């Protein structure tokens, strides 16, 4: 994949993940769009590579956030005996 | 190598605030976000892990419910199931569909597909029945390992750690068996976008309970559905003396 299509792919994946964001999909999408637009003029391949790396990190963070949120909600609902 | 059947249910998303219909006939489901029952996600994840460990070779996901149940089947396929069976039960029949019907359906499919393991979530977060695994094991006359928090395969049997009051119980269980997944069994993976796209190409067959010879006529009638009582507001007391007087008034001291 070229760097350009990797950036687009990253955007699509983040957009998809945003559908479950706790403060709402719209909240997330505006920020996602702004973050990508802010760096859209960047042309240094090394810097873009770093940004993609950061994006991948955010993807992992979001997946973990959703997993933990669900786990904690269920734990509180069904297991909290204390 | 084992064939695994996983049961998945489409429920109102765990994060949604449940509202009761004004006529007390049920809860509001129209326009409400639905997703896969979280305990069933854990069951699917466990099946996928068994496949990754080369213990299982095929995973079949089953869901009973209306047309939209196919969405959760697609999620199961995206997580790693190989094929899906949608047992269509719609409308009024779905409202009175009980674990006994579902377990009969699961048992029939388990026999038809010659599966070795049935894994389901221990309960659904909408009706909280916690009966399907137990009754499926009953209909199949198979051993059951409920509330599993760890599953290991050893030769021709499985060793399952079960969550029980105040601790864990380890049991050895012959195959075929029925397993129900508890919260701590694993951390389900997120169905990624590319996998959701790929899942659209995986086979999904649609059948009816009639095809399986299962009678889904209602056994219960819903009398009414009500909101839980609202907790009454407390009050702050200025000092200990007032507290003692108040407690005496209410006959606590």
From TrEMBL, chain A:
Q: Which residue ranges traverse the bilayer?
A: none
Domain Complex 1 LYR protein positions:
6-58
UniProt record similarity statement: Belongs to the complex I LYR family.
This protein is called: Complex 1 LYR protein domain-containing protein
Native source organism of the sequence: Cryptolaemus montrouzieri
Automatic annotation (TrEMBL), chain B:
Can you supply one Gene Ontology CC term for this chain's record?
Answer: mitochondrial matrix
Which intervals of the chain form a coiled coil?
none
- Sequence ranges assigned to domain Electron transfer flavoprotein alpha/beta-subunit N-terminal in this UniProt record: 24-216
Question: Is the keyword Ribonucleoprotein in the record?
Answer: no
GO BP annotations of the record are: fatty acid beta-oxidation using acyl-CoA dehydrogenase
Query: Mind listing the UniProt keywords for this protein, alphabetically?
Result: Electron transport, Mitochondrion, Transport
Q: Which PROSITE patterns match?
A: ETF_BETA
Compartment(s) of residence: Mitochondrion matrix
Question: What is the protein's quaternary organization?
Answer: Heterodimer composed of ETFA and ETFB. Identified in a complex that contains ETFA, ETFB and ETFRF1. Interacts with ACADM.
Q: What does this protein do, in the record's words? A: The electron transfer flavoprotein serves as a specific electron acceptor for several dehydrogenases, including five acyl-CoA dehydrogenases, glutaryl-CoA and sarcosine dehydrogenase. It transfers the electrons to the main mitochondrial respiratory chain via ETF-ubiquinone oxidoreductase (ETF dehydrogenase).
Could you say which protein family the record assigns here?
Belongs to the ETF beta-subunit/FixA family.
Q: What is this protein called?
A: Electron transfer flavoprotein subunit beta
Q: Which organism is it from?
A: Cryptolaemus montrouzieri
């Amino acid at each position: 994949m070229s760097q350009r299509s990797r950036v687009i792919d990253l955007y699509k994946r983040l957009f998809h993940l945003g559908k479950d964001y706790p403060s709402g999909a719209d909240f997330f999408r505006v920020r996602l769009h702004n973050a990508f637009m802010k760096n859209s003029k960047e042309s240094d391949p090394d810097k873009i590579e770093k940004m993609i790396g950061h994006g991948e990190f955010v993807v992992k963070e979001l997946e973990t956030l959703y997993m933990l949120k669900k786990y904690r909600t269920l734990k509180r609902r069904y297991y909290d005996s204390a | 190598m084992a064939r695994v059947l996983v049961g998945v249910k489409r429920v109102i998303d765990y994060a949604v605030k449940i509202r009761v219909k004004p006529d007390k006939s049920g809860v509001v489901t129209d326009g409400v976000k639905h997703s896969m029952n979280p305990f069933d996600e854990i069951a699917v994840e466990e099946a996928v892990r068994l496949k990754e460990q080369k213990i299982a070779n095929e995973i079949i996901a089953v869901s009973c419910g209306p047309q939209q149940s196919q969405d959760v089947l697609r999620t199961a396929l995206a997580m790693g199931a190989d094929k899906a069976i949608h047992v269509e039960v719609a409308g009024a029949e779905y409202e009175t569909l009980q674990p006994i019907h579902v377990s009969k359906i699961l048992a029939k499919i388990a026999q038809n597909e010659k599966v070795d393991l049935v894994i389901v979530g221990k309960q659904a977060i909408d009706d909280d029945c916690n009966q399907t695994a137990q009754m499926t094991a009953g209909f199949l006359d198979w051993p059951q390992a409920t509330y599993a928090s760890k599953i290991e395969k050893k030769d021709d049997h499985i060793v399952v750690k079960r969550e029980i009051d105040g601790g864990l119980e380890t049991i050895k269980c012959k195959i075929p068996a029925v397993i129900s997944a508890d919260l701590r069994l694993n951390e389900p993976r997120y169905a990624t976008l590319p996998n959701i796209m790929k899942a659209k190409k995986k086979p999904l067959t649609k059948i009816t309970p009639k095809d399986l010879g299962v009678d889904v006529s209602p056994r219960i009638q819903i009398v009414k559905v009500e909101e839980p009582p609202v907790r009454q507001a407390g009050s702050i007391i200025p000092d200990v003396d007032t507290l003692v007087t108040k407690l005496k008034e209410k006959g606590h001291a």
